[in-house]
Design brief:
Elements lengths: L4 E7 L2 H6 L3 E6 L5 H11 L11 E4 L2 E3 L10 E5 L7
């Protein structure tokens, strides 16, 4: 059984500025959720948005719930909500 799986993380908009990077390779335990991935990233990059309601997560270019499980080789993205007109 794998000890860790590798995911590729992409940050968009202000999250890219907060993390200081656009793309990052990350290893997480098997069975990790999108929430787990973001928690690991928050520990690495304390400036990242703390309020999870202000962030959307995606796995392999599909918006996903925080409870979605990531798999080895997945591309994970974190996107702030788009603000605009009414």
């Amino acid at each position: 059984m794998a000890v860790a799986i590798a995911v590729r993380v992409r940050f968009f908009a202000r999250l890219r500025e907060q993390s200081g990077t656009e793309i990052e390779a990350l290893q997480v335990p098997p069975g990790a959720t999108l929430e787990d991935v973001y928690d690991v990233l928050r520990r690495k990059h304390p400036a990242l948005e703390a309020e999870r309601k202000a962030v959307r997560g995606a796995i392999n270019q599909e918006l996903s719930d925080w409870s979605a499980v990531v798999a080895d080789g997945d591309e994970v993205a974190f996107i702030p909500p788009v603000s605009g007109g009414h």
